[in-house]
Design brief:
By secondary structure, the protein is mainly β. The protein is 8% helix and 40% strand. Bound molecules: 6-O-phosphono-beta-D-fructofuranose (F6P). This is glucose-6-phosphate isomerase.
C-alpha cells in the first residue's frame, strides 16, 4: 500500500440510484433546519418568524461512509425543500473551502441553481437533471431550490476541503434568488 493511503478505507462499490437520489451504503446524514441558517436570509425578521413557526427542515445531506479527511473523495446527495422566506428561495448555508479546492455537483431532481462568489464576481449556473456544475477553487458556493419540488444533487469533493461558513457571513454571496411570477430573479444585496 502506498504510504499516502488512509486506512481503514478499502476500495468499495457505491450504488447510485439517480431516480431515488440515494447512495448506498449510507454514511452520516446532516439535517439543517431553518434555525441553522441564522444571518443568511436578507429578511431577518421573516427568518426569525419561520424558526418560531415550527423551524422547518430546509435541507438534508446524505453521505457515504467516505470520511471528510485529506486525500479522500467523499460524496453526498443534498435535498433542498421547496420554499421561500420573504420571497427568497430556500438554499444551503453556502461555504468557502479554506484550502481553495474544486468540487462538482450533478443535478438529479427538481430545479435549482448553483450560486458562486469569489469575493468580487458572482456566477450562477442553472441546475436541471443532468447538469454538472463545476466549482473552481476559490469560489464560495451555495445551492438554491428555485422550483416547486425538492431540488436534489450529488456532490463530490476533496475530503480535506473543509467548510468555511464565516467567509460567507462576512462577504455574502453577491446575489440572492427571489421568487417572481413564473420563476426567479437574481438580485444584488
Ligand atoms: O455546507 P453547506 O453549505 O450547509 O451545504 C452542504 C453542501 O456542502 C457539501 O457538504 C459539500 O460541498 C454538499 O454535500 C452539500 O450540498
Amino acid at each position: 500500500m502506498p504510504e499516502f493511503a488512509t486506512p481503514p478505507i478499502s476500495p468499495f462499490a457505491i450504488q447510485f440510484d439517480a431516480e431515488a437520489a440515494t447512495l448506498t451504503p449510507e454514511g452520516p446524514t446532516l439535517t439543517r433546519r431553518m434555525s441553522a441558517l441564522d444571518g443568511l436570509f436578507k429578511d431577518h425578521d421573516a427568518w426569525q418568524q419561520a424558526v418560531a413557526d415550527g423551524d422547518p427542515v430546509v435541507y438534508s445531506v446524505q453521505s457515504t461512509p467516505v470520511p471528510e479527511v485529506d486525500r479522500e473523495l467523499p460524496q453526498s446527495i443534498t435535498s433542498i425543500e421547496a420554499g421561500t422566506t420573504a420571497g427568497e428561495f430556500w438554499m444551503t448555508k453556502g461555504h468557502q473551502h479554506p484550502n481553495h479546492q474544486g468540487e462538482i455537483y450533478l443535478a438529479l431532481h427538481g430545479t435549482g441553481g448553483l450560486l458562486m462568489f469569489d469575493g468580487t464576481e458572482t456566477q450562477w449556473i442553472d441546475m436541471v437533471p443532468g447538469t454538472i456544475g463545476y466549482i473552481p477553487p476559490g469560489w464560495a458556493h451555495r445551492s438554491v431550490n428555485v422550483g416547486a419540488d425538492p431540488y436534489k444533487f450529488l456532490a463530490v469533493y476533496p475530503g480535506g476541503a473543509g467548510h468555511d461558513y464565516g467567509w460567507v457571513l462576512e462577504h455574502g454571496m453577491g446575489k440572492r434568488a427571489y421568487a417572481v411570477t413564473d420563476g426567479f430573479e437574481l438580485r444584488e444585496f
